Amino acid sequence: MTSDLDIFVGNTTLIDEEVYQLWLDGYTVSEAVSRRLRGGLLERSGTSVSVLQSDTRDHFRTFQMLERLLHSPPRLCQQLLFQIPPPRQAALIQGYYAFEPALARELLGKKLSKGTKKELDEVSARTGLSLRACRRQFDNFKRVFKAVEELKGPLAELIQQHFLLPPPLARDYAAIVFFANSRFETGKRRLQFLSFGDLAACAQHMMGHWTQGAMTPEAAEPDGDVPRSFLQDLKELKVLVSDKDLLDQHKSLVCSALRGKISVYNEMETNFKALSRALVNVGLKLPHPRDVRDFFVDLVEKVLDPCRSDHWSLGDLRLFLGSYTTAPRALGGFRHQLLWERYMAGISACLLRMYHE
Amino acid sequence: MPGKLKVKIVAGRHLPVMDRASDLTDAFVEVKFGNTTFKTDVYPKSLNPQWNSEWFKFEVDDEELQDEPLQITVLDHDTYSANDAIGKVYIDIDPLLYSEAATVISGWFPIYDTIHGIRGEINVVVKVDLFNDLNRFRQSSCGVKFFCTTSIPKCYRAVIIHGFVEELVVNEDPEYQWIDRIRTPRASNEARQRLISLMSGELQRKIGLKVLEMRGNAVVGYLQCFDLEGESGLVVRAIGTVCTLDKLSNTSAFLPACNSPSKEMKEIPFNEDPNPNTHSSGPSTPLKNQTYSFSPSKSYSRQSSSSDTDLSLTPKTAPSPQGPRIFLFPSSPTLSCDSPHLKKSCLLLSGSALNPLHSSHVSPVVLRKSVSFTEELLLAASGMGSGSAGKEGGPFKTLLRQQTQSALEQREFPFFTLTTFPPGFLVHVGGVVSARSVKLLDRIHNPDEPETRDAWWAEIRQEIKSHAKALGCHAVVGYSESTSICEEVCILSASGTAAVLNPRFLQDGTVEGCLEQRLSWQPGFFSIGSEKGEVDFFPQSQDSSSLLGIEEASPPGCGFCHIPYDELNMPFPAHLTYCYNCRKQKVPDVLFTTIDLPVEAIVIGKGCLIQARLCRLKKKAQAEANATSISNLLPFMEYEVHTQLMNKLKLRGMNALFGLRIQITVGENMLMGLASATGVYLAALPTPGGIQIAGKTPNDGTYEQHISHMQKKINDTIAKNKELYEINPPELPEEIIGSPIPEPRQRSRLLRSQSESSDEVTELDLSHGKKDAFVLEIDDTDAMEDVHSLLTDAPPPSGFYSCNTEIMPGISNWTPEIQMFTAVRVSRLGNINLTNQTLNKNFNDLCENLLKSLYFKLRSMVPCCLCHVNFTVALPEDELVQIAVTAVAITFDKNQTLQANKAPTEKSQQRASTDNEEQLQFPLELCPDPLASQPSLPAKEVLEGATSQTGIPAAQRDRCNSWIELIKLKAQTIRRGSIKTTASLDKTSPLAEGYLRHRSVPSCTNSTVSVVKMTPLSFLPGAKITKYLGIINMFFIRETTSLREEGGVSGFLHAFIAEVFAMVRAHVAALGGNAVVSYIMKQCVFMENPNKNQAQCLINVSGDAVIFVRESELEMLPVQPSTVVSQPTSSGGDVTT
What we know:
The complex is a heterodimer. Chain A is mostly helical. Helix content of chain A is 68%, strand content 3%. Chain A is elongated and about 90 Å long. Chain B is an alpha+beta fold. Helix content of chain B is 32%, strand content 28%. In chain B, strand 29 and strand 30 form a beta hairpin. The longest helix of chain B is centred in the C-terminal third of the chain and has 37 residues. Chain B starts with a strand and ends with a helix.
């Protein structure tokens, strides 16, 4: 006697968190059943495999019906079809939009296009995630990206508003959108030591210091991009490295400030000009779309690697960046003080996050 | 022209994309009522249109208001081609037609399309301005309240319970009209939905008219069903119980004086009042006038002659010189709280030296195998109840019966669809009575004269009535009717519980004799009537006080178990003992009923769901041959179902069944029987004996061994079950109860042999009246299978209990968490060479597995109880079995249960606290002091308002009521809102701490989809129902031509049931309610054609929309407006939680 039709509908929609996770992980019904069996559920609840199968099928069906609504979370909260208590709704949304950092790391800086989606099977092989889970997460990125593409205002808050995500998750999504917009290269082997968390933090720092929203709350431009005006202005900073006097003055100011305070004073003194040149040049390349992609590579190769080989401590780097940023205040011929500090605030925060001793 | 309907279309949201090019929709709305249609403007290019229309006004008859649904259609405007329909909303405006219910319908409704399901939502506001129609020949019945609940609704008080009401209307099914061949499936479905909506409106109006005729103001236990008879048409029929209800909060709010009679009553102890002056023989006159019209029933023609001779004797003795005596006794030790309202009284009439009276005998199973299809097949399934009157009890009962009988005799059918009664209403319970009839359907030629269907039901009801009479009962309670249709064969079934009722509640009947009053029908009639009734009864209470000593010993905890029939002329052989509780009266060994467990019943341990399942193959046949073969099978099925029930009951060590519902379903090539009931151990009934297995071939050694092995297994199971259900009755010395047993049994045998000569009785002896153990003879493999199947029923996993009644006996401390659900399974019976055995096994497994999966699904709620488990079996196709289950899981507090069990005296108070309210409130009117000068005034005024006979004053009061209701409503919605947010915050905290608590959760809550609870029960645990908003009765059709794409049959039906729930919730929320009680899915007809990728499903649901308030919130009530505060008794109910 086979059951053709087998359903269970509760007035309050029943959601089993364990099965939800299995579904999110992209398992098929039979895979999920065998996983649940391995979890020892049968012994604990004294039931049969067929019951477990029917239960799993039922949950999966519910989730499939819910998926359409999960694509626009505010609808999930307004819809009348499934009666779900608000905390449950929040948990469902959070679960659906949660992503594997390894996957996000792979996709950072890539175009969220069909082409990338086709490469997901490789990503799936590398990360050990099922292809289905990869696709769902990729689609989530793309959906969030599309939704806020045209909107103005602080990115993380926009995402939180449109997808009802908890703030930390919304900030991560903001970082992903920021990367997708600015297309920084992150896939190079040299950058592999940076985790998703590192890069997301960098993106947040850059957005925090450089974007329009950081300056005026009622921003006119979307936050996903660094404003062109700011980037154009960065050219003015060239003088710090091109003008020999300014460079020497800058060096002596920093040196006098740091003498006796950092353990790598001598190395700093010998490397100062190279470091300063690298730090300013990164900024000078930012306005050129083709060079932008090298941002992280440059920072690592030209700033962090020399420091690391000289065994700077994180404290040393922090002290150095601090006085390096503030020193130009005492430079007579330098007029772009505000611009400089805004630029350096972002760069310093990124460098400190990226510096793994 | 007494009504103006006003409709406003506010907005839409989440509409589907109708224009692929722009991904948008140009939506507009058509609002149709009767033949009038209004349209809104087109709101271009939006999926969230804001129409904000003007008020569309329909000026209509109230007849039309009752019949017609409001029909709202959302369309997509298309300049070049025809406008595309997006979907529809049907709104039943009936709840707006009576003053105490909702005043406005306003909210978001899902837009429903029969092909696509829910497609967005629409916000609508509906109001009705109603002018009272004073024309007494009117065809409308606005103002009559309808309740699905099968007990007196919680915030009402029954003044009078009038009795049975029924009606049916028939029509052609649009699906079978010629036009259906050329119209789209959508058009056909919509025609059907609309027609059924119309028919149920008409039916309700007609029933309402009957109610007004009976001078009631409400129908309780309203059950409306559809019979899809296919070619021969569509029948919508309904039954219910007419009552005169009085709103409790109203009386206490407006007329605080109403409470005074009960207080005064407390001060005047009835039984000890020595005042002999009031002694009079008042009631003897009406008694003399009584006619003992025991119409001999057709089916018992053999016995009727003997009963007639008996009857001829009794009327002479009735008006004996001393006159009948009445006496009152304060009953119900279970209600011994400090409140003065708790005093409850029962009326018992006693006549001196009366001959035992009985109407007729009934054999346990009366079978008349019908040769022709029209002859119905009957079965008095009453065999379970048995017993006789005690020595003193006999005369009492006899006169009591005479009294109420006279009241009930004048009714065509003394039936009550209620399953729970006010305390004291139910005096004795006889047993289950049921009748079935196999009919051949033919085309209904004249829809306006549905005589044939009426006649069919009338026949069945007549049978039920006579069965009840045979059990010495004058009424049938817990009455219900059902049908099963396959092709052109239809089985009509009716069942109920024969009972003796307290005449006090049937005032209407007792006053029947006072003709002059009857003729001068005035608005105040009822109160005068009831007062009169009271005066009639009162004087006797003094001279009956001498009898007090005798009767007081029979507490109400066991009274209903005492046999109503006569010991000497038992309707069937049975096994009687003296009641284990009071030791005064006789009780049967086993009691089967269709009602809920009475509040006052004393139960030991917990109850459990007991099911009997059975399949019988039958040959495929046509028309008459088919009907005949079904008729021939029915009695055997019924017999086996009862045997199974009895065995399973014994196996659980229990002695009574409540809520018994036997469903027999007919299919192409088989019949299926499914009986569900809740088994309990009643303290008043004797301990059931075990089950003894006896082999037929005792010489075989291995066989013997096998038998003894099985016997051991059975004994083990019984012992285990007793432990599981905590059945540990106090040990009784055998000699007290043992001795009187054999004698009456022999006597009854003797009488029996005189009155009948048939051997059918011994053949089909349902009562199994063996002395101690119950013997199962194993004579062939079939019997072996049966025994095996007995043992396969797995008990629910620990922490789970289940029952099909309202409340689980033995569990009381419910926590407010509830989960109502519907589960449906369709299974294919695969192989062609089916035998009855394999079929039975398959069916049994199907049910067991279904239950198992329910337990598994709900495991997170443990400890919990599945209440009101309602199985429905259908045989949609040749080898398909469909089972649908609707039930509610309620959590309870385990620790408190243990405590409660230690103090069994509190048992009846442990009931859901909502019940308490009823207990507290009811007695107010039960015993108003006849000496007080204006005790009935308040009742009178309320009645005026309710019956709307007085015109202006009533109307004013109505307005006043509704205004206050509005305030209350507002207060409640405000409160509800606040509670919801706090609750959500509470629950979030265990999640990743602080992670999503502060921002995301409130944003979800803001969207204000109010939570609507649904339950098949009549109450909500831990909550108090403050208002009934009206009946919800909805019928939906869903069809698909892309079954695979919608996730196959499971995906299709899953979505549809979820949609039905959503639409019910939306309607309730729009009425301002927050719950549906007494929810029932009456029909779920599912048809599929996988080859064509098609499926269709029809669902009919109903329930009562209510507003409830959490008891925890009630405690804060003093802050609320005084109207709400003035429900003082609720504080008493709170104690229990």
